[in-house]
Amino acid sequence: MSEIITPTAPALLWAPDRTEMVRALWEGRPTPPLAYLRTYGCQQNVADSEHLAGMLAAMGYGFTDRPEEADLILFNTCAVREHAEERVFGNVGALKHLKRRRPELLIVLCGCMMQQSQVAERIRRSYPYVDLVFGTHAMGRFPELLYRALTGGERVFDLSEEGEAPEGLPVRREGKIKAWLSIMHGCDNFCSYCIVPYVRGREHSRTPEAILEEAGGLIAAGYRDITLLGQNVNSYGKGLAEPMNFAGLLRQVAALPGDFRLRFMTSHPKDCTEELIETIAGSDKICSHIHLPVQSGSDRILRKMNRHYTREDYLRLIDTARRKIPGVSFTSDIIVGFPTETREDFEATLSLIREVEYDALFSFIYSPRTGTPAARMEGQILEAEKSARLRELLDVQQAIGIRRYEALVGQTLRVLAEGYAKDSDRMLTGRSDANTIVNFPGDPSLIGRFLPVTVTRARNWAVEGVPAEENVPKL
Ligand code: SAH
Ligand code: SF4
Ligand code: F3S
Asked: Is the pTM of the predicted complex or chain greater than 0.90?
């Protein structure tokens, strides 16, 4: 098969010939080949996987959630902490016996972890049954790379740092109600602990036109909860031909007609403006929840982390948002055990957590990442000490979380019903505008609809309630 087939659909413009060529490989097969996808890491990776799945579908693949019956297994990997990488290596190791049983099985590894040369080298050396490896810059070349892996008779590695995720990639979304929408790629911030800028490259904003078109399509398709994604959405717009900032983009997306709500992630505190806060306050489509990672409550550590704000700046921001956005809630990421973190620094983090009263925290043990400045710093903290601090922090937050949830009892929240609650065929689950999980009894016909729910009881990670009659403003 060497003939180049010209594209027939505009959606295939991103890789016209190879997509059709891969599809042609399956001609005559009674059933489509099956792909099994597994995604590690953050929502950006989840969004990327939805595009990889879209490309696979365009290339003729069907999907399975059982690796044993797959013709292609793809892991979209994460490099943010060592633990994430170890899981990938472990899970790739477990594929060896599948490949031995079925040598025609194609094993594909991609994403952030693969963009690191030492990782790709380890795969090349120690995992000879992996067929195709590509990094984050090669998304748009996936059909081409897959074609080469299927027909070339040798392993294919593409770790080039050239290339952006192209517009117009097909997409196969997991959900029908909630959707992820990437508004930008990469990161320019170089927090001293973080590998993301190295593996995802420089920040690049999509145009407002492309974003509005995608958002409009989602709303028309019935999506009710759209999350705009970027490593730092607050710096959206850098480098665009027409000036535009994140608050402006939010206003434009929120102005689209339809019954939906809008979220965004992640906000870097250094770029969170009053204009953004006022935009959230002024729209009933934009959720009153801000994920605003603080990382540490100690100014000394924040400086070493290269975060460009102080504890005082951060608390002032929280205060402004609380004054302007009724019922606003915050979540955050915290790193414990950053190099040189003393007991005093750690206590500053605990006191900040108590002061802010987050709804939820995502807390991580500092993990040295090869190539980042923090990994080379003196004063690395012992694992046992880091774990002890994490446990202490989790205890503090748990008490706060329960208190926050108990304060909701008696309040009526606007909830988007998303599906059945875990292990139940009677209770539905959904989220409030503040992103609190709310479980309530209800008819499945409510799934995909907004409804008021009065909270009756607080749990650890969720609240329970009963549907109410009245209509409520966002909270
Ligand atoms: N761009 C986002 C999130 C990036 S990664 C942001 O700036 O908030 C998600 C979280 O992982 C980070 O917020 C941080 O808390 C954590 N993280 C990143 N690198 C880490 C490392 N080396 N060790 C431990 N946690 C890390
Ligand atoms: Fe990493 Fe900082 Fe960029 Fe977030 S903003 S991805 S923590 S470098
Ligand atoms: Fe991981 Fe890459 Fe996201 S390193 S956290 S998947 S940007």
From this structure: yes
